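sry for the spam today, last one i promise. struct tokens for design, 356 residues
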């Protein structure tokens, strides 16, 4: 499959620069895969498309102040994006700056042109396209909370006055470099309304990093490799999902990150059962904690997810390919053309789709 088939032209003014208020005032396009139909709504209308017994699976990862600033001994400035930890003091990062070489010592600053804060980091490894492994002289998360900034995608140019608007209302497990944005549309009142009508919610974790937001650069989709990201699905959550599947209730992923956790857990369940008569053969998912580099694109089967909520994604992104695999590329292409015609707002602070 050709990566170029996942290009599309988007008028720049449709890239959402700020979130709507309230959160559930965003628009919602509903895609019916069976009927091949599209319809236009608002996110607050979501309860009308859900059923009692549906199980919503949210990603509860919380965005950390992952944007850090540093200075080299030569005086040159470096911007760092924390991606994922290898230990409390060793992190994979993206580094923007010239000649950030192995062995270099970086002095952390309190802002882009700020003063040293007394913390340093040494470059341990160099990777492709700005990837660097750094060893800090102290625990990284407290340092980020003290001097880091909320990292916004490069296509957002407006200042974010309230960093909590780039968090879901249920974010609780710090570790992401970007928000799981499908969840940004939920309000506490909407979650309460869904619970009252019998829709259940549960939570998994995937810390968003390079695997989620790096675009596909290879000409052929199959040649792309997703960088591993940490995720977890607890035993009690696995039990809820397995019970829902046994009872014929829908499992609905809130966002592509939740999709990847669920489908990874589905593959682990299948791989852990060698005998159809074994005690685990009835399980759809298996609990786990660890890395996933699962890449879902057209032709790769889904084993767990029955419906999904997602935003409108960038061209050539693994997220767009995942949604095409679930919705069908023809229907998704039609949906994106319709969204542009109807002036939907795109990307992180943009509008949403419900695909069933």
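last one done:
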């Amino acid at each position: 499959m050709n990566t170029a088939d996942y290009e599309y032209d988007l008028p720049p003014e449709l890239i959402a620069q700020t979130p709507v208020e309230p959160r559930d005032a965003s628009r919602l396009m509903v895609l019916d895969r069976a009927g091949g139909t599209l319809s236009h709504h608002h996110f607050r209308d979501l309860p009308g498309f859900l059923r009692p017994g549906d199980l919503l699976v949210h990603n509860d990862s919380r965005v950390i102040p992952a944007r850090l600033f540093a200075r080299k001994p030569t005086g040159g400035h470096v911007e760092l994006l924390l991606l994922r930890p290898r230990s409390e003091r060793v992190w994979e990062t993206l580094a923007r700056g010239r000649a950030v070489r192995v062995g270099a010592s970086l002095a952390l600053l309190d802002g882009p042109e700020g003063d040293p804060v007394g913390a340093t980091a040494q470059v341990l490894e160099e990777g492709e396209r700005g990837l660097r492994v750094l060893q800090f002289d102290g625990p990284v998360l407290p340092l980020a909370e003290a001097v880091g900034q909320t990292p916004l995608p490069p296509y957002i140019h407006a200042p974010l006055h309230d960093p909590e608007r780039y968090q879901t209302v249920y974010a609780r497990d710090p570790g992401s470099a970007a928000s799981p944005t499908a969840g940004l549309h939920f309000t506490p009142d909407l979650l309460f309304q869904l619970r009252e009508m019998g829709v259940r919610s549960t939570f998994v974790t995937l810390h968003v990093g390079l695997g989620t937001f790096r675009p596909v650069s290879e000409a052929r989709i199959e040649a792309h490799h997703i960088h591993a990201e940490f995720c977890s699905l607890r035993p009690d959550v696995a039990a809820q999902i397995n019970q829902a599947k046994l009872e014929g209730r829908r499992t609905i992923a809130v966002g592509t990150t939740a999709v990847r956790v669920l489908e990874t857990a589905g593959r682990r369940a299948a791989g852990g059962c060698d005998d159809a008569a074994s005690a685990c053969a009835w399980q759809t998912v298996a609990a786990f904690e660890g890395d996933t580099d699962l890449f879902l694109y057209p032709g790769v089967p889904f084993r767990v997810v029955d419906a999904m909520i997602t935003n409108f994604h960038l061209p050539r992104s693994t997220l767009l390919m995942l949604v095409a695999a679930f919705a069908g590329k023809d229907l998704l292409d039609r949906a994106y053309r319709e969204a542009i015609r109807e002036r939907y707002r795109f990307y992180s602070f943009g509008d949403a789709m419900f695909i069933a």
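The first strand starts at residue 27 and ends at 32. ok im logging off now
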